[in-house]
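Researcher: Please translate sequence to structure tokens.
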Amino acid sequence: MADIKKTTKKETEVASINDIAKKTTKPKAVESKEKTAEAKAAPTIITTKKASSKKGSVERFYATGRRKEATARVWLSRGSGKIVVNDRDVTEYFARPVLRMIINQPFVATETTGQFDVMCTVKGSGLSGQAGAVRLGISRVLDTMVPDLHSILRKGGFLTRDSRKVERKKFGHKKARKSFQFSKR
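Model: Translation complete:
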């Protein structure tokens, strides 16, 4: 007869555990490689963000706008021209007429004043930065809702983010640019 090894009970248990471990680990590694290969091969599809409203079949479009340290999340829907900022009316939130004018600029440029309802939440920065952020958000939403308005919004500069921010203070200076008083002697 052929050489038959006598194996103890412990050796068979260890062998069976190793076999089970090999069976379970190999397919997972293969699956993860397949998934990553599929993820790399799959084309990315960019769609416009649509938010479904709670009130029914009203279609709302969403975009974000930023200016200085302010961030505005803007939802736009067909309506009567009502603008709500942080659950308050625009005249209440932005009391200065200049700020309201900044917000309405995209509508005036595209001649769509009074055709859309705006609901937005803004945080960060001051009122001027927040108004600029809302304006950019409104412009981006108008661009996604009505693609024909893109050229008008682009020419007016409404789709370009204003990248100016507060310059940092430098050491050895009083402020960002201002130096301490210089004494020659």
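Researcher: Any highlights?
Model: The chain is about 40% helix and 20% strand.
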